[in-house]
Specification:
The chain is α+β, with helices and mostly antiparallel strands. The chain is built from 3 helices and 5 strands; from the N terminus they run αβββββαα. It has one domain.
C-alpha cells in the first residue's frame, strides 16, 4: 500500500479509521469521519459525517456516497442524491446497529455481520477484477 492512501483506500482498510478529506468542484477541502460501508444491490455505499459540523449538516447526520469506477479505471466517491437509495442505505445501517450487543462499542468493524461481509467481499472482488482488467488494457 502506498504511503499516502486515497480516501477510498482508507475506507476499505478496516484498520484505518482516520478522517478522510474530499474536495468539492472548487477544490475546497472538507474533512469527514468514516461511519460505515454498506453493500446494496451490487454496489458499495459509504456513510460519512462531517468532522466539523456546519449550519447545514448536524453532527449526528450522515452523508451517503457511492463508490464508482470511472472510465479511466480510478475509483471515486459520488454524492448520492436519490432519496430511495439513501433511505435503504440508512435502513441497513440502522439494522446493523440494532443487532450489535449492547455492551460493545460501535465501530466500523462491528457493523458487518457475516452475510454483509460476504456481500462486500464479492463486490470488492468485482471492483478489483475490473481494476485489473483496466490495467491490462493499458
Amino acid at each position: 500500500m502506498e504511503n499516502n492512501p486515497s480516501a477510498i483506500d482508507k475506507l476499505f482498510d478496516e484498520n484505518n479509521n482516520d478522517n478522510i478529506v474530499l474536495f468539492n468542484s472548487k477544490g475546497e477541502p472538507t474533512e469527514f469521519e468514516q461511519a460505515a460501508l454498506i453493500p446494496l444491490e451490487g454496489k458499495v455505499y459509504a456513510i460519512l459525517s462531517l468532522a466539523v459540523p456546519n449550519e447545514d449538516i448536524a453532527e449526528d447526520e450522515g452523508i451517503v456516497f457511492s463508490i464508482e469506477t470511472r472510465e479511466d479505471g480510478e475509483r471515486s466517491l459520488r454524492l448520492v442524491v436519490d432519496d430511495g437509495i439513501i433511505e435503504r442505505v440508512f435502513e441497513i445501517y440502522e439494522s446493523l446497529l440494532d443487532n450489535l450487543p449492547e455492551d460493545d462499542e460501535t465501530d466500523e468493524e462491528d457493523l458487518f455481520e457475516d452475510d454483509f461481509d460476504d456481500q462486500l467481499d464479492d463486490i470488492l472482488g468485482d471492483i478489483l477484477d475490473e481494476d485489473d482488467e483496466s490495467s491490462e488494457k493499458e
